[in-house]
Structure formats: structure tokens, C-alpha cells
Amino acid sequence: MTKLTRRNFLAASASVAAASTVATTNAFAATAAPAATGAGLKFEIEKGATLRVLRWKRFVQGDEDLWNANVKKFTEKTGVAVRTDSEGWEDLRPKAAVAANVGSGPDIVMSWFDDPQQYPTKLIDLTDLATSLGSRLGGWYDVCRKYGTKDGKWIALPVGVVGNALVYRESQVKAAGFDAVPKDTAGFLKMCQALKAKNTPVGFALGKAVGDANNWAHWLLWSHGGKLVDKKGAVAINSPETRAALEYAKQLYATFIPGTLSWQDPSNNKAYLDGQISMTANGISVYYAAKNSTDPKMQEMAKDTQHAHFPIGPAGKPTELMQITQMMIFKHTKFPNAAKAFVQFMFEPEQYNPWMEASIGYVSQSLKAYEKNAIWTSDPKATVYRDSAALMIDHGHEGPLGQASAACMADYVVVDMVAEAASGSKTVQQAIDRAAERAKRFYKA
């Protein structure tokens, strides 16, 4: 198989030299019968249908366990054999692009951010399914609607949001002289400086971390009023607001543990659980790992762990980016009805509620009815993540979502700019100029 690089993915319209096709196994005999999917739409399952699903590797064991249990339920109910392949977060995106360009491979992909906007013509229209689910389950959050639609049609269904929040050691924050995390960026910087002075530094990812680096770097830019592009999609990164954000980043970076420039998504989990840092930005997976450990030291860490929203910056409003994941069905599938039945099945309360509960809210809801799930109140430490979809901004921000925004995200334009300026490898203006030049290759006037 030809090695697919991140650059190959960015050229979404280019031809793919080669790709391997993985054979689908059929461990169960599929039969032609309507899928029993509760009160939702009824789909006539194709005879002999099998499905291959590509999704991201779990960070929380409960997520994977309940996912597999739900897959088994679907097979038992419909006779459709489903194979789930899990890939690392960074590897999922290019593999989905291969499937889109070659026209073969997985039937369903759980993708990141606006990946479906890269190849909307390759995807099955899911408007009927989105309308049915929305009408029965409280409606979709606005940000989910923006991510999932193109030209008025649903091209993907947001499964949920891997919420991102500040994860911190309460005892260490108090030892640094703060009762809680400050709600403004000026106070937040002072707290991080105080934590560093106490030899309990913080750490935020600045490497090729699909979730953690993108999430906090975009918050940093937006919190100061900066933006990559304007409403028309014109590159607007060269601004006083961006310069202010990067000057702030330089001060904040001085409080970091060494090594964050190479951190990927698992790195800050490990650093926090090893006791190397007092604070990071992450999903609830860090707390989950500590809480479910049999190690007494980890249990104590779980008790000491708290979560908080990011502070408000000069922009004067919440400016958080979080990791949305979407289910899309490729037109190359031989079994579109089975695929749509599967997607609907996973959204139904009988499957979705236990899935959220088993992962203690690692993936928060995209449909408003699931705000009522007891997981958000039974453990107060999970409550911060409940409002992820209601709070977050899509990464296009003021600009449109599409091939350009997806490419800039995949190329880490904002993350690299913050990393270069914060670390001093480039001046603030040099970092901005390079980001602008890179962005203009995708946002063409």
C-alpha cells in the first residue's frame, strides 16, 4: 500500500495512487428484513448485507465496550454482520480520504470536525434520518447542524462531542493561592505562573494532536478576538488581535513542562497521571482513568481532580473549540439501507444513553434530549462536559466550513502558528505571516 501522508490528504481532489481493500467478514447470515429501530424510520435491509465501520481508537474503555455491545445488539436484531476497525486519531482522517477518493473501503466512517465537507458528493444524503432523529430527540444543537449539513442537506450525522475542558489538581491550585480557576485570561495566566513557581507546572499540547492541540490553540486565538478567516472566507489572521493572542501564548508557554511541542493526544494524559503537571486541557478520560484504577494513588488523584471551562478573554465571550465526531456513509456502500439502519440504531436512547454512561460522558450528546442523562449530575465532575455542543464554536468560526477549513485544520495551521510564536522559534509576526501564507493556499480568493 502506498504510504499516505498528511499532505496527500490535503489534496482531496487529487488521485490516490494505491489503496488496499480489506475484505469484509460475514460471521452472521444476514436476512432481508426491516430493521427494528424503535420509533424511527424503517429500512428494508438488503439481503446478505454486511457493514464495515471505521472509527477512532478509544481513550475510555467504557466507550469501546458499549460500542461493541451495541454492534452485537444490532447484528442480533437485523442479521447484519458489522465489523468495526479502530484507527489512531491522526490516522483516521487520511484513511477516510482514501475511501472517498478510491470509492471503496469502509461503508461508514466516524470522522472528525468538518471532514465530510471535504467530499460531500461522495456521501449519502442523510436528511431524512437527521430530520427523524431531531424531531424525536429534542433537536440538534446549532453547531452540529452547521457541521453536518452542506447546501441544505445532511451529509453526516454528528455522533457527539468529545468535550474539552481544563483538568486540574485542586490541591495544587489552592497551594498556588487560588480557590478556583480564574474566569478571565489575565487571572488564568497569573495562576499558571504561580503553579510554575510552586514547581507544579502546567502543560498543553502543541504537537500534532488532532484534538488537544487544535482545541486549546483555537481557544487561545479566538479568546483574544483573532480569527483565521472572515465571514467571506478571506484570510484575516494578520491582525492586532492575533498578535495579542500570541504574546499571551509566549507568557503562558513559559509555565509549561518541557516537551509539549511534540505532544500528541495521549501525551498530556500520561503527563497528568504521572504527576508531572498540575493542569492540562482534555476530555474526561484523565479523570476516568484515575477513578477506575485500582491503584490507591490514582484513586486519590481522582478525588483531587476537577474540571473547569476555559477562561474568557478580551473577546468577552466563550470561545471554545471541541472535538466533534460525525458518522458519514459513503455512496460506494453496497448496503445503504443497512448502513442507515445502523446509524439510526446507534442514536436511539436504548443504545446512546448506556454508551454515554459507560464512558462517564466522554462523548457528550449532539441531540438535546440527552442533556437529561443522569451521568451529567450523578457525578458533578462530569457536568462541565454536558454543555459541550451548546457552548462550542465550529472551527470555521466566522468563516464557512468546507474543503479549505478542513484542510487548514488537517495541516495544523493555527496550532503551528501558536507553537512557533510561543516557543520563540519564530517571532510573533513571522509566525503570523507563515500561517497566512499557508491558509491562502486553501482559502483562494
Automatic annotation (TrEMBL):
<dbReference type="InterPro" id="IPR006059">
    <property type="entry name" value="SBP"/>
</dbReference>
<protein>
    <submittedName>
        <fullName>ABC transporter substrate-binding protein</fullName>
    </submittedName>
</protein>
<dbReference type="InterPro" id="IPR050490">
    <property type="entry name" value="Bact_solute-bd_prot1"/>
</dbReference>
<feature type="signal peptide">
    <location>
        <begin position="1"/>
        <end position="29"/>
    </location>
</feature>
<comment type="similarity">
    <text>Belongs to the bacterial solute-binding protein 1 family.</text>
</comment>
<keyword id="KW-0732">Signal</keyword>
<dbReference type="InterPro" id="IPR006311">
    <property type="entry name" value="TAT_signal"/>
</dbReference>
<keyword id="KW-0813">Transport</keyword>
<dbReference type="Pfam" id="PF13416">
    <property type="entry name" value="SBP_bac_8"/>
</dbReference>
